[in-house]
């Protein structure tokens, strides 16, 4: 039996099925390590579903989802692009996410609004560094996953699920067995149906749209039949262990012959296991060679959840009213800001007013679009479960909750209060806001200057637009020099921003040297007191503050600073005064006593606050801030430097050169593993030593190595390095 996929048709046919039934919608993301084949897999999905007329190729720079100039030049994904298409009566909203660590936020905000994910692995490499990062992000959001072992055509491809078990601590459920390996990889055997799916590609240009489906029989290779038989038995036993309903069905109806269980019953059980996140279905193929993508699409619709199968407690309080989350903003030269919304309840219509709870503002949405990478189709309405693109929302930013009106928000707040009993007054909106996207702290910064003062306003506008699009980009003005400071997630991140300002806004900016975003902490526990006595006009303000600071958990990434009050104070302080005290402490956390870097890993105990009548909250904050600065100086400062987790894949002949270079960078080797003919070097290295590492690595290995970096921890600098840094910052070196 031969089968063929739908014939390609125009993108505007999306109008035909504007609002499918919610049970037929799949909001999924494709995530993986760099170069595992995410974008190529996405391109094949679009082609086989009939939404593109030609197969896009990352190397040729003609992919649909990588539509930015920088993405096509570099062959990497930078932004997460949303694509909508239909597959066998299901609507799939798919987001292709970056694999590079500099663009981790793009993955984070995509996963925040998705219901399921496809993790793509390079079959020759298994689980790599960035795979671990994105997998942890998916786990944090409790997202069911399907695994796709890509690049099965590579000579070193290894159909092994051991690395998924060991490194991801996941429970892989094997649904397919490959037929052939390396260049002889021709297809897969579906273990549920015992059918062989074979792609007989006559040339490199064959698109893989047509493939053969044939039931396994005795004429097939005996070794393959044995492997399939054992794998199917193992699959049935594994699913029975994970799903009680399926185990009961087996023991009741098929106790004599487990193999006789209908494939549909097995599929339903695997779906339950996947949704409960007890197991992860594993499929295989080669996207570049056009093999195995159609079964992956079938698996997405069969095993990943519909929006109504993911329970968001908060949404029930809105009932049929609109509730949506803004998860991405893009700027279009013609249409202005384009805001991506995930609709959780209700219906979205163009030419209507919406209320933004976070900004407490009402805006009018002019148009509603279905996102098709960089092409958009206008539609009259969109219902719950979908991802929409809106035009006209000028104040909305990433992480904002959008509702139909202020009255709808108030009604939802009342329902939330009734559900949870008497809530604290004044905090009612906290319950009805969708949790936004966690933005990591930047690790690099540099100055940015326009070519002339005449372009300063244009540069500020460009930076404001880019910050709305990318919340991990921070821009601040140095209070001493007045220079604009650009803060980002890595060298590549800042390089791409610089390039976008030139291409998209036509401004030739100059970047200063890259600098590392250090942190500061304290060494000792200290108690101190301070009094502020100031007369402003005819009003006298008098505050006395007593507090203690001590170091806690200084090395963790994003190590927080705590504020606590003594029991006596907790009951005495009025809410406004307490808020003023907290503001004073927080403001002092922004600039450390040594070099002015943000502080982390400090616990502050407010022991006493005495306030004369008529003293303003601003004066309370000022006194607390001054007292904190005094305490931090007395406690002794310590610079913390970001230390990166480094993974280098290199041929054995170049290993000694890479190790020698790492030794000069204050690197610590944790492990050296073997992967086929290569060595995988795992190390920790201070970020300050990694400037320009990609160029050096290319030189010492003749271009035969790859590496990935991830922020591991903040560690105390040794005294010698700290003194060198202090002198350099003081301009003495």
UniProtKB/TrEMBL annotation:
One GO term (biological process): mitochondrial translation
Statement: the UniProt record of this protein carries the keyword Zinc: no
InterPro entries in the cross-refs: EFG2, EFG_II, EFG_III, EFG_III/V, EFG_V, EFG_V-like, EFTu-like_2, G_TR_CS
SMART domains found in the cross-reference section: EFG_C (SM00838), EFG_IV (SM00889)
Catalytic activity entry: GTP + H2O = GDP + phosphate + H(+)
Residues making up the signal peptide according to the UniProt record: none
Keywords: GTP-binding, Hydrolase, Mitochondrion, Nucleotide-binding, Protein biosynthesis
Compartments reported by the entry: Mitochondrion
Pfam families named among the record's database cross-references: EFG_C (PF00679), EFG_III (PF14492), EFG_IV (PF03764), GTP_EFTU (PF00009), GTP_EFTU_D2 (PF03144)
Positions bound to GTP: 32-39, 96-100, 150-153
Main subcellular localisation: mitochondrion
One MF term in the entry's GO annotations: GTP binding
Recorded superkingdom: Eukaryota
Stated role: Mitochondrial GTPase that mediates the disassembly of ribosomes from messenger RNA at the termination of mitochondrial protein biosynthesis. Acts in collaboration with MRRF. GTP hydrolysis follows the ribosome disassembly and probably occurs on the ribosome large subunit. Not involved in the GTP-dependent ribosomal translocation step during translation elongation.
Sequence similarity: Belongs to the TRAFAC class translation factor GTPase superfamily. Classic translation factor GTPase family. EF-G/EF-2 subfamily.
PANTHER family recorded: RIBOSOME-RELEASING FACTOR 2, MITOCHONDRIAL, TRANSLATION ELONGATION FACTOR G-RELATED
Protein's name according to its UniProt entry: Ribosome-releasing factor 2, mitochondrial
Native source organism of the sequence: Amphiprion ocellaris
Species lineage: Eukaryota, Metazoa, Chordata, Craniata, Vertebrata
């Amino acid at each position: 039996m031969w089968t063929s996929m739908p014939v390609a048709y125009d993108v505007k046919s999306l109008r035909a099925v504007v609002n499918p039934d919610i049970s037929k919608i799949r909001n999924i993301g494709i995530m993986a390590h760099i170069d595992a084949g995410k974008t190529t897999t996405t391109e094949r999905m679009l082609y086989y579903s009939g939404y593109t007329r030609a197969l896009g190729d990352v190397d040729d720079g003609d992919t649909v989802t990588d539509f930015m100039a920088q993405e096509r030049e570099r062959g990497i994904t930078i932004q997460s692009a949303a694509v909508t298409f239909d597959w066998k009566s299901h609507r799939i909203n798919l987001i292709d996410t970056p694999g590079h660590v500099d663009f981790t936020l793009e993955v984070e905000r995509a996963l925040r609004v998705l219901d399921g994910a496809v993790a793509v692995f390079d079959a020759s490499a298994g689980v790599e560094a960035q795979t671990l990062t994105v997998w942890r992000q998916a786990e944090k959001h409790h997202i069911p996953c399907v695994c796709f072992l890509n690049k099965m055509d590579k000579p070193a491809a290894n159909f092994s699920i051991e690395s998924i078990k060991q490194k991801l601590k996941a429970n892989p459920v094997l649904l397919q067995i490959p037929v052939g390996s390396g260049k002889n990889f021709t297809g897969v055997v579906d273990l549920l149906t015992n059918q062989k799916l074979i792609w007989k590609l006559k040339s490199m240009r064959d698109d893989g749209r047509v493939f053969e489906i044939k039931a396994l029989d005795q004429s097939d290779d005996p070794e393959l039949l044995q492997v399939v038989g054992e794998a199917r038995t193992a699959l049935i036993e594994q699913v029975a262990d994970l799903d009680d309903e399926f185990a009961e069905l087996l023991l009741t109806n098929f106790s004599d012959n487990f193999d006789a269980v209908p494939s549909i019953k097995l599929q339903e059980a695997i779906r339950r296991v996947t949704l409960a996140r007890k197991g992860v279905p594993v499929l295989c193929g080669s996207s570049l060679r056009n093999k195995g993508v159609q079964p992956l699409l079938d698996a997405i619709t069969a095993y990943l959840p519909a929006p109504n199968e993911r329970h968001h407690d908060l949404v029930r309080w809105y009932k049929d009213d609109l509730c949506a989350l803004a998860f991405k903003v893009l700027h279009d030269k013609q249409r202005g800001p384009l805001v991506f919304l995930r609709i959780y309840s209700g219906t979205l219509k163009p030419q209507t007013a919406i209320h933004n709870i976070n900004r407490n503002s009402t805006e009018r949405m002019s148009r509603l679009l279905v996102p098709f990478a960089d092409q958009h189709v206008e539609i009259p309405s969109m219902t719950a479960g979908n991802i929409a693109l809106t035009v006209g929302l000028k104040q909305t930013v990433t992480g904002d909750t959008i509702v139909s009106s202020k009255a709808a928000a108030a009604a939802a707040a009342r329902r939330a209060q009734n559900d949870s009993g008497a809530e604290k007054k004044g905090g009612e909106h906290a319950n009805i806001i969708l949790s936004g996207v966690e933005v990591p702290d930047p690790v690099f910064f540099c100055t940015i200057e326009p070519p002339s003062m005449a372009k300063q306003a244009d540069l500020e506008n460009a930076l404001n637009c880019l910050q709305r699009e990318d919340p991990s980009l921070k821009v601040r003005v140095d209070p001493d020099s007045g220079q604009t400071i650009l803060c980002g997630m890595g060298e590549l991140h800042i390089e791409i921003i610089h390039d976008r300002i030139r291409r998209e806004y036509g401004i030739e900016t100059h970047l200063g040297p890259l600098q590392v975003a250090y942190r500061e902490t304290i060494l000792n526990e200290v108690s101190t007191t301070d009094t502020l006595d100031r007369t402003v006009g005819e009003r006298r303000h008098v505050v006395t503050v007593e507090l203690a600071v001590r170091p806690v958990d200084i090395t963790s990434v994003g190590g927080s600073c705590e504020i606590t009050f003594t029991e006596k104070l907790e009951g005495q302080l009025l809410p406004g005064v307490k808020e003023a005290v907290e503001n004073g402490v927080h403001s002092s956390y922004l600039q450390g006593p040594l070099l002015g870097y943000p502080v982390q890993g400090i616990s502050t105990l407010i022991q006493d606050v005495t306030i004369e009548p008529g003293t303003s909250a601003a004066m309370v904050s000022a006194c607390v801030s001054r007292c904190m600065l005094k305490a931090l100086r007395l406690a002794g400062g310590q610079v913390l430097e970001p230390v990166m987790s480094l993974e280098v894949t290199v041929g054995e002949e170049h290993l000694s050169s890479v190790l020698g270079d790492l030794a000069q960078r204050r690197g610590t080797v944790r492990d050296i593993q073997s992967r086929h003919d290569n060595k995988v070097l795992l190390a920790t290295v201070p970020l300050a030593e990694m400037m320009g590492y990609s160029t050096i690595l290319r030189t010492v290995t003749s271009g035969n190595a790859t590496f990935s970096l991830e922020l591991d921890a903040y560690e105390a600098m040794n005294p010698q390095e700290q003194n060198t840094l202090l002198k350099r910052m003081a301009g003495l070196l």
